[in-house]
């Protein structure tokens, strides 16, 4: 089975939206800017790394690249059987699974970023990655430091993040080295996230969460707080309210997903942090990424050959590498062209029909194998309407 994963804060980089500007999925940015009340496109295109380190900027920017990548893979027919996000990425997962509406997701992420920024300014904190030490020994180092320092992220075997007051993080890091850690690496963040230092942000965000309508997910979503799969709607109110002050149990989530039958993980968003953690945690599984349009064909080709661990076709995969879906560019009534194109060859850019007053052109050349919408059917934006074979 395929699971879509979504990265968190720290994966952002300057110019990470530039590869997507000419892609149809970029249209989401204008909607997000209106909902957030700020120019999100500028963050994705023009903001430098220093500006993007600010929590209020990095979170909405990272979330948007995940949403663009999700929309893009959906347009070519790649489907998932589950969702999981790391920290901020959990909000991306909830929007992707249909638990939270996209525009509500934009507003929640914006509020989360602001709340965490303010909390970090009120209470000085930092984070550090402890490499090459077992989880229980990292926990022991925090306990022996005897102060405000806690485990914040269980990312992968031998990769645990600690957070808290800067002197206490230094002390716990030194103890971890004495216990056998290969390296303790300070992280360039502005706060002690996923610790009690985020209590004020938790209170502020909780008020925003209480205003959101939560729906049943299309597929299970694995939560950071308990590493378990959740298939209900309202359970997410408590999970999100707990997330900011609780450790991210990512390694445990990956183990649980593997136990539940997931064999392929596709990271949607900037960077490849989660791809790396899956490679370290579940070496028998396939780990792929989409953070630019150029990655999509590579993912399609990889999905055409299921990993050995899957034992057969992947649940959640819709198309083979030589197949593409043409999706509706707008909402309205679909009217195909007068020519009978079924089974006929078409070239890239050829007109296939109209949705309302909007023309539908195929982005690819190939053979029309079938229509997924019939003449006179009302379709929504991004709904598949035709199936091509390109190879």
Structure explained in plain terms:
It contains 13 helices and 19 strands. Helix 4 runs parallel beside helix 5. The strands form four sheets. Strands 8-7-2-1-10-11 form a six-stranded mixed beta sheet, with helices on both faces. The chain has a five-stranded mixed beta sheet with strand order 6-3-5-4-9. The protein is α/β, with parallel strands linked by helices.
Largest sheet: 6 strands, mixed
Which structural class fits the helix and strand makeup?
Answer: alpha/beta
**pLDDT < 50 stretches:** 317-321
Shape: elongated
Strands ordered across the widest β-sheet: 8-7-2-1-10-11
Distance between the termini: 25 Å
Radius of gyration: 22 Å
Number of helices: 13
- The helical percent reads 25-40%
The strand count comes to: 19
Strand content: 15-25%
Mean of pLDDT: 90
Notable features of this structure?
37% helix; alpha/beta; elongated; 391 residues
């Amino acid at each position: 089975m395929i699971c879509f994963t979504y990265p968190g804060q720290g994966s952002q980089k300057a110019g990470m939206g530039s590869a997507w500007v000419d892609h149809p999925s970029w249209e989401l940015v204008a909607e997000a800017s209106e909902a957030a009340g700020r120019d999100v496109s500028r963050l994705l295109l023009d903001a430098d790394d220093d500006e993007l380190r600010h929590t209020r900027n990095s979170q909405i920017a990272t979330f948007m690249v995940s949403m663009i990548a999700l929309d893009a893979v959906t347009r070519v027919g790649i489907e998932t059987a589950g969702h999981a996000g790391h920290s901020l990425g959990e909000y991306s997962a909830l929007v992707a699974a249909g638990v939270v509406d996209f525009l509500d997701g934009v507003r929640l992420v914006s509020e989360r970023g602001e709340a965490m920024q303010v909390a970090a300014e009120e209470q000085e904190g930092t984070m550090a990655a402890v490499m090459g030490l077992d989880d229980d020994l990292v926990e022991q180092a925090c306990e022996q430091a005897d102060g405000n320092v806690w485990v914040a992220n269980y990312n992968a075997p031998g990769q645990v993040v600690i957070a808290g007051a800067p002197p206490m993080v230094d002390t716990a890091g030194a103890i971890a080295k004495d216990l056998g850690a290969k390296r303790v690496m300070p992280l360039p963040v502005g706060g002690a996230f996923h610790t009690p230092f985020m209590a004020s942000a938790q209170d502020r965000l909780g008020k925003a969460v209480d205003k959101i309508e939560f729906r049943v997910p299309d597929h299970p979503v694995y939560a950071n707080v308990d590493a378990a799969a959740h298939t209900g709607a309202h359970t997410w109110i408590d999970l999100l309210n707990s997330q900011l002050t609780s450790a991210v149990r990512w390694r445990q989530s990956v183990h649980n997903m593997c136990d539940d039958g997931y064999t392929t993980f596709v990271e949607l968003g900037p960077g490849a942090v989660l791809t790396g953690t899956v490679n370290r945690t579940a070496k028998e599984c396939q780990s792929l990424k989409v953070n630019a349009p150029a990655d999509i064909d590579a993912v399609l080709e990889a999905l055409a050959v299921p990993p050995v661990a899957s034992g057969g076709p992947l649940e959640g995969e819709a198309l083979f590498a030589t197949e593409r879906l043409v999706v509706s560019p707008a909402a309205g009534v679909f009217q195909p062209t007068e020519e009978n194109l079924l089974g006929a060859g078409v070239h890239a850019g050829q007109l296939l029909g109209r949705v309302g007053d909007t023309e539908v052109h195929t982005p690819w050349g190939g053979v029309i194998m079938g229509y997924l919408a019939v003449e006179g059917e009302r379709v929504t934006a991004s709904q598949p309407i035709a199936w091509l074979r390109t190879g």
